[in-house]
Amino acid sequence: MRTSVRAGPGAGARLHASRRADGRRDGDLNWDSFEASVNKRTKLVAVGAASNALGTIVDAARAVRLAQAVGALAFVDAVHYAPHHLVDVRVLDCDFLVCSAYKFTGLTSE
Fold first, then answer.
1. What is the Cα gyration radius of the chain?
2. pLDDT tens, position by position, for the chain (110 residues)?
3. Which CATH number does the domain housing residue 43 bear?
4. Which residues span the domain enclosing 88?
């Protein structure tokens, strides 16, 4: 996300980040805030499908539907989700889904 924050303004883009729900310790998104930040000017909606630190599973399909409703692309970061759950991108219907081999006992920097 830091790369997006730095690169966005140079490309004429603005980044809107949603916070977790107030008073909740499970890390779930504040969906009211998330939905309010997506509108017809939105080009890309990006969401993490799960939190490695808290174990929270985010309703990525809801975020994808929100993106589709305004004509935006949907990007799902499944790096912490995919090693533990089956992922069917046809069902999720996102435009981009990413994960990394290091979560599957792949290469690391060590």
1. 15
2. 455 555 556 666 666 666 555 555 666 778 888 899 899 999 999 998 988 777 789 899 999 999 999 999 999 999 888 888 888 989 999 999 998 877 666 565 65
3. 3.40.640.10
4. 2-102
